[in-house]
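Pasting as-is:
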Amino acid sequence: MPARMIPYSLPAQEIEGQVQRGKQLLDAMNGRRSCRFFSDRPIDRRVLELALAIGHSAPSGANRKPWRFVVVDDPALKCEIREAAEKEERESYDHRMPQAWLDALEPLGTNWEKPFLEIAPCLVVLFRIDFEEFDGRKERTYYPAESAGIAAGFFLMACHHLGIATLTHTPSPMTFLRDLLGRPSHEKPFLLIPIGYPAVDCVVPDVSKKPLSRAMQWNRRDASTAPVD
């Protein structure tokens, strides 16, 4: 049965006003950094649930919302997650990662040790859902990875807007998260996101970002004249 349709419109806005608001948002988001040094200051649950609600408002394939946000604030469980993540990370740094990958990470100063997994007041584990069960029958989702990625972006922007620091952490493989958190096999760990407030002595790498000109194209590329990116 087709969904009931309702009117949709946006308030009329002057172009200069749009440009100004866009510049303000760009300035704000350019100040976002991945945080690896957290305070243990707790996050008010109302603030966190607002950020999660914003993440959950993201569009998704066929409106199936194929994701689950699992919030972890239990110290013992955070410790278990850290131990499991560091086990995988140490194996990756010592044996799995090619030298080119290690060289790319070197300016960021990362290694297999992940103390932020215990220090940050909360860990948010985002799972993608490949299918759901209703009344004993399986119902597939559509574009679960793409949809979960969009939800993650909404959540990260919401956290920054609300003054919460984040880190997108991807220990590989991440199956241990499903096991530790008791999620079913059709839910797959997508991102492990420590969240909280920066430590008083927090520092971040002073690195530049790829310019937009290298990440954007208008219309069809003329391979005969376009510069090599």
